[in-house]
Design brief:
Strand order of the largest sheet: 1-2-3-6-7
Number of helices: 11
Number of strands: 9
Number of domains: 2
Distance between the termini: 28 Å
């Protein structure tokens, strides 16, 4: 949900995104991921819970995964309330990857000391888990009760996110599943679980590209898609430099050939899409970001409808759906 100068207007993107989630739900997609950032020049989605509520009202089965939800940017009690209501609206379809945040701009915007983010992060997770019990508890020296209770007894599922070795080890120590910003850190998480004598984590799902576009003519469409792909990868790569530590899958790229050569971006024919899916195996996942970099919704719909018409039937034949 980004509106750079080259992109489609944000109001049309939001309308399209909700419709595309309804389409995905009918088709049997498993999950919609919603990110969060604040103060971005391109209008990057700052309110994933509001967006998820709109999507929940139009869907029945698809999981609503807030990834990452920057919990350090939220007042903990209010966050617990909003997530409980979202869990009720969706009948228990909410999962959140709890993110700590890394952009100094965002901490400055909300008047939060970035040096205290780890302590705030841990405390917010504690408050969420405690609040969703629906019982009185102590918060900042006073007794409070958060209502209503969420749809699920324990509340929305919390996964810990991160893009450093420290975050991987922390997730293992605190007993949470881990969703890494870069797949290399998952092995750190697994190894830490082993050291602690905890159950072996399930393997990290083998993910497909960050951007998948299905077309009858990749050579025709790549030049149209390239500015949006380039904008997005370079923007994330620039933001990553603000982190200081850790890693991201996005790298700065400049030419069309650079974009085509990156495995993160797949612009493929229907048959090539099926072949690609086979390489991921039965436990892999194909992910779309249909409005990548503010891509024209009409063009994104062309890709999705072609996927439905020419790829899904073959994936079923191959036993991959």
């Amino acid at each position: 949900m980004r509106g750079p100068a080259i992109g489609a207007p944000l109001d049309t993107q939001y309308e399209a995104a909700i419709e595309q989630c309804a389409w995905a739900d009918r088709l049997g997609f498993a999950t919609v991921f919603l990110g969060e950032h604040h103060g971005a020049e391109d209008g990057y989605l700052p309110s994933p819970m509001v967006m998820a509520s709109a999507i929940a009202s139009r869907t029945k089965q698809i999981e609503l995964h807030l990834s990452a939800l920057l919990i350090t940017m939220h007042q903990p009690l209010r966050l617990a309330e909003d997530l409980a209501v979202l869990d009720l609206i969706s009948k228990g379809r909410v999962t959140l990857t709890a993110g700590m945040g890394y952009r100094p701009l965002e901490f400055e915007m909300f008047g939060i000391n970035i040096k205290k983010r780890l302590a705030i992060y841990k405390e917010t997770i504690r408050v969420l888990q405690t609040a969703w019990r629906g019982e009185p508890f102590e918060f900042e020296g006073r007794m409070v009760t958060v209502t209503p209770k969420p749809y699920r007894k324990a509340g929305p599922k919390i996964i810990m996110g991160g893009s450093t070795e420290a975050s991987a080890r922390r997730s293992a120590r605190m007993g949470f599943e881990f969703f890494p910003g870069h797949p290399d850190f998952y092995e750190v998480y697994v190894e830490e679980c082993r050291k602690l004598g905890k159950p072996e984590p399930k393997p990290l799902t083998r993910s497909g590209p960050n951007f998948l576009f299905v077309t009858e003519d990749p050579d025709r469409d790549w030049p149209i898609l390239a500015p949006h792909v380039k904008y997005t990868t370079n923007s994330y790569a620039q933001w990553a430099t603000e982190r200081g530590v850790g890693a991201t899958t996005y790298k700065p790229l400049q030419t069309l050939d650079d974009l085509k050569a990156s495995p993160l971006f797949q612009v493929v024919t229907p048959d090539e899409c099926v072949d690609y899916a086979k390489t991921l195996g039965a436990d892999g996942q194909l992910s779309f970001q249909p409005l990548f970099g503010g891509l024209d919704p009409d063009m994104s719909w062309q890709s999705l409808h072609l996927f439905e018409k020419a790829v899904v039937p073959k994936l079923k034949e191959e036993g991959l759906l």
